[in-house]
Q: What sequence folds into this?
């Protein structure tokens, strides 16, 4: 296990390959960098000339918990920029899915010095998708802290994997001031609200238009209410150097992976199919 200290946080990471071009894979949820399908995509991308950074965002996997900042994706974007700088790996191709697409976009927008390109898929958005995200991430913890206290938050199953992977995290959670913790998570919930002028929460459209690196946006399935097709198309239209492309799977891919989650143990088992799409785009577009 490799770990770096950035912005006062311990961040777990793996570096695959030894080429000059760095890719970063960023997930959503509380999934770790070793979720099935993710290391396999990293291995497929780490062809000669390429290396891949896998990392656990704060509040996932082996990395430290952190409850600060205006939104969780922005805090994680700031952490990613600091990690790339600390490891001397930038500028990098920032690749991500679900909320990891938000983190990648925010990193490129607010820390352009670490970004060489963007590649995003399963882009979260839309009123239902963002409302579900805010609820999934924060409602149980806000309710437990508000009605009982931080011990009740620590007892929630959603934090168990983080405690198991990082022995410091339970104490970090218990040390939070309850009122401040509730205020932070309510602020983070509100940050996921759909609002005019922001295809991606926290990324005003005029800021998105300032992102000048080449970008690949894979079109979401028309059947997917969590990552609406219209959001992926609007994002591609907003980014000045974006290419909108079809993904290497059918329209119902996300829904099928979600339905198969109990058996497969991961939403990402077919992500290695992305490698030819990503590497072909990079060869055509990136210098």
A:
């Amino acid at each position: 296990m490799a770990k770096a200290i950035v912005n006062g946080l311990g961040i777990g990471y793996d570096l695959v390959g030894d080429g000059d071009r760095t890719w970063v894979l960023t997930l959503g949820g509380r999934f770790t960098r070793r979720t099935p399908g993710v290391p396999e995509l990293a291995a497929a991308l780490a062809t000669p000339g390429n290396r891949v950074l896998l990392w656990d965002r704060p509040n996932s996997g082996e990395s430290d918990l952190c409850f600060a900042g205006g939104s969780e994706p922005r805090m994680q974007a700031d952490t990613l920029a600091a990690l790339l700088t600390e490891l001397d790996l930038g500028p990098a191709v920032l690749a991500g899915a679900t909320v990891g697409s938000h983190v990648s976009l925010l990193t490129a927008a607010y820390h352009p010095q670490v970004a060489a390109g963007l590649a995003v898929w399963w882009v979260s958005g839309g009123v239902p998708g963002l409302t579900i995200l805010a609820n999934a991430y924060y409602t149980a913890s806000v309710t437990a802290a508000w009605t009982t206290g931080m011990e009740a938050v620590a007892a929630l199953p959603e934090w168990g994997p983080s405690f198991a992977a990082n022995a410091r995290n339970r104490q970090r959670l218990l040390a939070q001031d309850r009122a401040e913790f509730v205020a932070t998570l309510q602020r983070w919930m509100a940050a996921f609200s759909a609002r005019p002028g922001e295809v991606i929460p926290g990324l005003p459209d005029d800021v998105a238009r300032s992102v000048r690196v080449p970008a690949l946006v894979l079109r979401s399935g028309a059947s997917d209410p969590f990552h609406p097709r219209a959001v992926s198309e609007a994002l591609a239209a907003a980014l000045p150097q974006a290419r909108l492309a079809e993904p290497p799977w059918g329209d119902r891919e996300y829904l099928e992976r979600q339905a198969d989650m109990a058996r497969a143990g991961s939403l990402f088992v077919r992500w290695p199919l992305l490698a030819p799409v990503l590497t072909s785009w990079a060869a055509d577009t990136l210098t």
About this structure: The longest strand covers residues 115-123. The chain has a mean pLDDT of 97. Residues 2-125+199-277 form a domain with the Rossmann fold fold (CATH 3.40.50.1820). Residues 127-147 form the longest helix (21 residues).
